[in-house]
Specification:
The chain is α+β, with helices and mostly antiparallel strands. It is built from 14 helices and 25 strands. The strands form seven sheets. Strands 11, 14, 19, 21, 24 and 25 form a six-stranded antiparallel sheet that branches. The protein has a four-stranded parallel sheet with strand order 2-1-3-4. Strands 5-8-6-7 form a four-stranded antiparallel sheet, with helices on both faces. Bound molecules: adenosine-5'-diphosphate and magnesium ion. Adenosine-5'-diphosphate (ADP) binds next to strand 6, strand 7, strand 8 and strand 16.
């Protein structure tokens, strides 16, 4: 089997690495990939959003299965296009990907099917949103751009002034382009977050092990929201009881709801959840693996991932067989200073080749390129250093020990990944 992985971040590096190790021994290629991925498999210089060229690449390379990492091509309809061309692809259709692509739609379908989530209102008019923000007394509240905003379109507002600023930046100044034409304003939930990621072909739901992301840029969960600064799996906040409650109250009903509404879902279904005193509440759905949760999960995954994703794409997920290492995994993201804002370019990373990688320690590349024999940072999040350990502290120490061997001036990472689980 020949597999094309679409994307070029740490998530895709982890997917490529794990897919390659599948007992069915698939041949793996990637587009566009990055310098770290290119060390493992052939990479093709086609952007993840250039759907036509990707289909052409899959045809020319005689690809048997395409696996899509990021949300943008899914929301743009890559699955529909490939299927129309008779190319097998793992992921949701454009209609089903709306679950991530439009937070207003996600809230509505959850309301229609009584799936637990924060109370909300949707606004498409600036003045109506401003009036509501001024008159409500329930602060803090959360203002969200409805469309895709690369993890930067959510603002937690402590008072009406902050809410007005957030609303104006989205609806008036179009800080997120058309993604902020409509906004969702929702109640602020208190609790600990976790990610539950499942594979589904619309009939079978194969729930993976739990994980937890670290959204804020700095230690102690300070600073702006990012795409994610680190992750670990499993997340002890998700007890067995909660896990089955989430399956029953969230995953099964949303898969059913999407089918019922003519948008059958196939692919990765990701529920971002807040564990509140009243039980789990959905913060959002994603329609692909989280990054960096994916890196931690891939480190622990056992069994034949290539076969499982192919079976899922064929509607035969019930035949798939995956299992998990008992050992916890930790991922620490190394980013360039300035991230999640603008970052410099061309900074060298020294020492990468001196770190000895193993099945217990992988340096997944998120944004690197090569210049001669040098490794150069080429984006905000640069590396996702991932380790497996006999316990969480051991995994964390292994990841940080690897990071400490790198010489990467102008970079930073959080030093407290895993603090919630370790503080229990
Ligand atoms: N209702 C809420 N109450 C409290 N925190 C929230 C709420 N909604 C979102 N957040 C916080 O904002 C982060 C980003 O929100 P999310 O809905 O996941 O959007 P995205 O990942 O697209 O930026 C969440 O991980 C969570 O930390
Ligand atoms: Mg999120």
């Amino acid at each position: 089997m020949k597999i094309l992985v679409v994307g070029g971040g740490g998530r895709e590096h982890a997917l490529v690495w794990r897919l390659k190790q599948s007992p069915s021994e698939p041949e793996v290629i990637c587009a566009p990939g990055n310098a770290g991925i290119a060390r493992e498999v052939p990479c093709f210089d086609v952007a993840a959003t250039d759907l036509e060229s990707l289909a052409e690449l899959a045809r020319k390379q005689k690809v048997d299965l395409t696996v899509v990492g990021p949300e943008a091509p899914l929301c743009a309809g890559i699955v529909d296009l490939f299927q129309a061309r008779g190319l097998k692809i793992f992921g949701p259709s454009k209609a089903a990907a709306l679950l991530e692509g439009d937070k207003a739609f996600a809230k509505e379908i959850m309301s229609r099917h009584s799936i637990p989530t924060a109370g909300h209102r949707t606004f498409s008019e600036l003045n109506a949103a401003l009036i509501w923000a001024r008159e409500t007394v329930d602060y803090p509240l959360v203002v969200k751009a409805a469309g895709l905003a690369a993890g930067k379109g959510v603002v937690i507002c402590r008072n009406p002034e902050e809410a007005e600023e957030a609303i104006r930046s989205m609806m008036e100044d179009q800080a997120f382009g058309s993604a902020g034409q409509r906004i969702v304003i929702e109640d602020f939930l208190v609790g600990e977050e976790a990610s539950i990621i499942a594979l589904t072909d619309g009939k079978t739901i194969l729930v993976m092990e739990s994980s937890q992301d670290h959204k804020r840029a700095f230690d102690g969960d300070e600073g702006p929201n990012t795409g994610g600064m680190g992750a670990y799996s499993p997340a002890p906040v998700v007890t067995e009881k909660l896990q089955s409650q989430i399956e029953r109250e969230v995953l099964v009903p949303i898969v059913h709801a999407l089918k019922h509404e003519g948008r059958p879902f196939s692919g990765v279904l990701y529920a971002g959840l807040m564990m509140t005193q009243k039980g789990p509440r959905v913060l959002e759905f994603n329609v692909r693996f989280g990054d960096p949760e994916c890196e931690a999960l891939m480190m622990r995954l056992r069994g034949d991932l290539a076969q499982a994703l192919a079976l899922c794409a064929e509607g035969r997920l019930d035949e798939a067989d995956l299992s998990w290492s008992e050992e916890p995994a930790v991922t620490v993201v190394v980013a360039q200073e300035g991230y999640p804002g603008a970052v410099g370019s061309g900074r060298p990373i020294w020492g990468l080749d001196e770190v000895e990688e193993s099945d217990d320690l992988r340096i997944f590349h998120a944004a690197t390129r090569r210049q001669g024999s040098d490794w150069i940072a080429s984006g905000g999040r640069v590396l996702a250093v991932t380790a497996l350990g006999t316990d969480l502290a051991g995994a964390r120490d292994k990841a940080y020990a690897a990071i400490d061997r790198l010489r990467f001036p102008g970079s930073f990472c959080r030093r407290d990944i895993g603090h919630r689980a370790l503080g229990r």
